[in-house]
Amino acid sequence: MTKEIAVIPGDGIGPEVIREGLKVLRAAEDSVSGFSMETEEFPFGSDHYLETDELVPEEGLDRLSEKDAIYLGALGDPRVETGILEQGILLKLRFYFDQYVNLRPIKLYPNVSCPLADKGPEDIDFYVVRENTEDFYAALGGRAQEGRTEEILEITRSIYEAKFDLDIEVDGDELAYQIGLISRKGAERAIEFAFDLVERENRERLTSVDKANVLSDAYGLWREVFENVSEKYPDIETEFSFVDAITMWFVKNPEWYEVVVTPNMFGDIITDLGAMIQGGLGIAPGGNINPEGVSMFEPIHGSAPKHAGKNEADPLATILAGGMMLRELDEEEVADRIEQAVYEVLEEGNVRTYDLGGDSSTSEVGDAIAEKVREI
Ligand code: IPM
Ligand code: MN
């Protein structure tokens, strides 16, 4: 059946890298029998916002709902106040479509230089499963100025007293707070996805990230849910890691990791570190997944305005995100071919963009991968 793909090129380098991603998907369409796709482009992003004042209208959400998946370039523009496009489009889509997992493979390809001494492709090959709808992203927060801070102070004081038996002094002139929300159901579904991924990928170990030693209410629940869910998977080895420690271990012993599951905010941070140990943001893809709904695939990098329009950005992250999208749509052969093509082109080492030490253009990399997809 023809796959219906919504394409949101977005801002900055988004349109250039998406163009190459689509080129590669078209090559797969020509060479894998039974696979076909139809694309429809949507204009959401900074230009559209500046012209119309619209982020993603209701009608746009309805049309996106009819698609099999969304292929997104990047969002963010220096002309727009920080947070507007990120929250109004990217987070809006993640939440609206309840894409509760953000799956980020951390894989070092051959011939890609890794900043860690003595580590190669055999050492860096794991997945981060980032819970994608809760935690500090749940938009629970507020600011209060003098005269309106009493209630927050009251709660803060009573918690300090109960926990530490201390009276605290907080200046009540101006306060801001942000609450991290973990729900049992929300944690459960992300953690179950991670255990299933361990099985599907024939891995052995699942590491759960938290900070239950300090933020013990929210991440205590996360930990409890992890323990409960793990009982359903007796053959999978499990462990906990505090988030500060895991940043250290990603650098020291990345080969230890197979699948890592993490609350949203820590996942955001540790996957940027993960991207660096796999050779940079230019090659790190991700998928915002709702296994029963419309999922959205994107490079994990941003819109990189200073590289926009120069045909120099690395399209590999977006190309790999396209492969992940087709895997989620059960087009295994297409997904395998795309990954294989990226692998081979990098291994040959002739075509690569500046970030990987080469001087090829965005479109030359796209051409080389597309050609390889046809050849395989
Ligand atoms: C990411 C990004 C987003 C996030 C921002 C742009 C909202 O950093 O996809 O990792 O924090 O999730
Ligand atoms: Mn991020």
Give the distinct bound molecules.
3-isopropylmalic acid, manganese (II) ion
Radius of gyration over C-alpha positions, nearest whole angstrom: 22 Å
Number of helical elements: 12
Unreliable stretches (pLDDT < 50, length at least 5) are none
The dominant shape is globular
Our estimate of the beta-strand percent is: 15-25%
Domain Isopropylmalate dehydrogenase-like: 4-369
Pfam families: Iso_dh (PF00180)
Protein name: 3-isopropylmalate dehydrogenase
Keywords: Manganese, Metal-binding, NAD, Oxidoreductase
What does this entry look like structurally?
By secondary structure, the protein is an alpha/beta fold. The chain folds into three domains: 1-106 and 280-376, Isopropylmalate Dehydrogenase, CATH 3.40.718; 114-138 and 182-278, Rossmann fold; 141-178, no CATH class. 42% of the residues lie in helices and 21% in strands. It is built from twelve helices and twelve strands. The chain has helices at 14-31, 46-52, 58-65, 84-96, 150-164, 184-200, 218-230, 243-252, 264-277, 316-328, 332-348, 362-375; strands at residues 3-10, 37-41, 69-74, 101-107, 125-131, 135-145, 174-181, 205-210, 237-242, 259-262, 285-289, 295-299. The strands form two sheets. A ten-stranded mixed β-sheet has the order 2-1-3-12-11-4-5-10-8-9, sandwiched between helices. Strands 6-7 form a two-stranded antiparallel sheet. The protein binds 3-isopropylmalic acid and manganese (II) ion.
